[in-house]
Batch of 3 targets.
Target 1
Amino acid sequence: MSYSPTENAILICSDVDGGSYELYIVPKDNLGRGDGVLDAKRGLGGSAIFVARNRFAVLDKSNNQVLVKNLKNEIVKKSALPLATDAIFYAATGNLLCRSEDRVVIFDLQQRLVLGDLQTPSVKYVVWSNDLDTVALLSKHAIVIASKNLCTCTLHETIRVKSGAWDVSGNIIHCLDRDGKNRAIAIAPTDLIAYLQQKGFPEVALHFVKDEKTRFNLALESGNIQVAVASAKRLMRKTTGIGWA
């Protein structure tokens, strides 16, 4: 499912029989009322996602291209894709993340340029951080964490990866258990740091740490001297009240 909040428009996709989509536009005066049946605009395509406020892209696998459409379901643009693509995902306004069996690319629809390219296990889910600076690419047994330009690190898991979400505000995860019930689980953010260290990625853990002593140690471990020096200065200022030039 893909959603355009400014237009109250929803795309619902299915992989059945080669792929199709339905586009619903919810009138703002009907929000929360739940009455009436909405008319849907329909079409064929392997994937369909919003790429702008009032534009969405549909994957045409047979011609390896995307069709950009307006909310009337009319084609306004066609773009050939830079690799044999079997699925497309959102990658910020005007951009697509295109997936093949063992590779993903970030593709700028307007300029028709590849902004990032990455070899990766077959990706099932794509989860962007709120600021769209970081993305998690989830495969069956791997988590690939990358920047918006697809600079990356990979974490391999023995358990099957089913979904993921970025921690924005702290120590609570909301999820569905196997019985379909909502659960709120408290976690310790330090567990994430220890996990990343254990997997050999102190440079990634550094992005999630605010404690200066921990940042200093992680910076040394990852060879980031600039961050280590900055943390050392703040630690000295905090403990002695004396600045360090």
Note: The chain has a mean pLDDT of 84.
Target 2
Amino acid sequence: MLDCAMQNLKLSHNPLIQYRPIRTSDLEVLQKIHGDLFPIRYESEFFQNVVNGRGIVSWGAVDRNRPNGQNDELIGFVTARTVLAKDSDIEDFLRYDSSRSEQTLVYILTLGVADSYRNLGIASSLIHEVIKYASNIPICRAVYLHVISYNNPAIYLYKKMYFQCVRRLPAFYFINGQHYDAYLFIYYVNGGRSPCSPLELVKLLVTCAKSGFKTVAAKLWTKEERKPSKWPKSKESGSLLPTKHNRRMSTEGAVSQFV
């Protein structure tokens, strides 16, 4: 898939963007971009799982017009994994058929684009790749992700792409000794849908907003604390503005930088 974008003022050439799977040869660059963009550091196991496709699917963006032999070097990426709907924390936002325990979801882990390639539509194209992937899995019902509450550009992007913002989660992230809220976004595929009507969903969101989501958040945290999982308790994804610090993230925990 090609995306011929307008020239970015930060670039000295006209980019020609192509999307491809992430490969083992991308490991070093993938680690560098994550380090440049995200406020946490990831353990090497996370990157090994990405480049080797162990439980994670991924797509990378490259600029075929990039000079100096860098025309196959990653300038953007998205990573995701498939989870069982019954084991997810969004089961209450699905019209879920308990008799079909095999139904799945796709969870976006990280999304990032190098600074000089922002505002070229690359992030949108990467998200489209995830949606297309999920849509081609007959038993998949939705794509979902978390976004930190202050990242207005990311929130705008997901709404523009018809993701539904269905919940605000207080103190969802803990970064640099500070708690941050997150929004939960869902994009339904293959006939997946909310368990309530659009009007009922709006009423639910208004009620939750007025109450500060305290009850919902308490139930969610209690449920998450009880649930055994090989994934870390630090949540997988969200769209964070880049800051630097030295905290390391366990294997699959992830936060993402949208561009």
Note: Residues 1-7, 213-255 have pLDDT under 50 and may be disordered.
Target 3
Amino acid sequence: MEEKLSCNGGHEFKLLLSCPSGLSPSQVSVVFDEAYDRIPHPDPTLEQSISEIWDARVQQSSSLYNGTKFRYGGYNFDVGNDPKQQLHVSLHLGLTDYRTFVGTNLSLMWERFLVPSEDDCIQCQHTSSPLGNGAVVETSDGRILVLQRSNKVGEFPGYFVFPGGHPEPQEVGIISHEGFQELNQCHMINSKVSQEMFDSIVREVVEEIGAPANSLSSPIFIGISRRVLNVRPTAFFFIKCNLLSDEIQQLYSSAQDGFESTQLYAVSMSDLENMASKMPGCHRGGYALYKLMVQGTSDS
């Protein structure tokens, strides 16, 4: 299931999980457990650098907030014994925070946190690796929506991206692993986190593009890509919007999170191919997942 495709610099990516048939919410579950949390690095000096980097960033910008995030810790496929049974994937998620993300993945020393291994989860066991999300949104006139990031954002200013952000632990009442040890509580929280995976990408699309939630189809999960530069993972979804691209352009002007981007493009597949070369690796991986989905649809 793993595939590595290369471009220059921050464009390089790795597909950690590809689901070209697209998975509905009933086909995606989550195991939320501290077993998938980050393991501290054995080098105390490197570990101490996380606090030092964060403290320096806070001094530069007092508005920085250390919010909790879900940490990507791998997945399992469950195909069962019945060949007619629907494909099901279980995502493994732990807990991390923005402070640790800044001090590991975004650190200039990020490669020192990696462990030499073919196993992705072992390789990244010392990094924060918060799981982001992104949506390939198709309009009713067959266009794909792409944002150009503001020059004021911290990562990849001016690059093209799909709308997205992060599923949020606080949306389902999680601030730590405390209180979820009982079996029934584990089942309940796993179900809530799984739902948040799908709810959060709809929120991101609504906030970043301005399209109302009732114009969007239920998201389908198409896989996870990881940027090779600072090993950042992102889950991607495909969503259909029943509005025309011209209508969405009008709504975009009043989008809640419009400050994060400078322009919205509604593009054809060939235009998207050209724009993908100016995407961060994780989003270029999202484009690769979308192409696999389109190819799978045309082959079936």
Note: The chain has a mean pLDDT of 91.
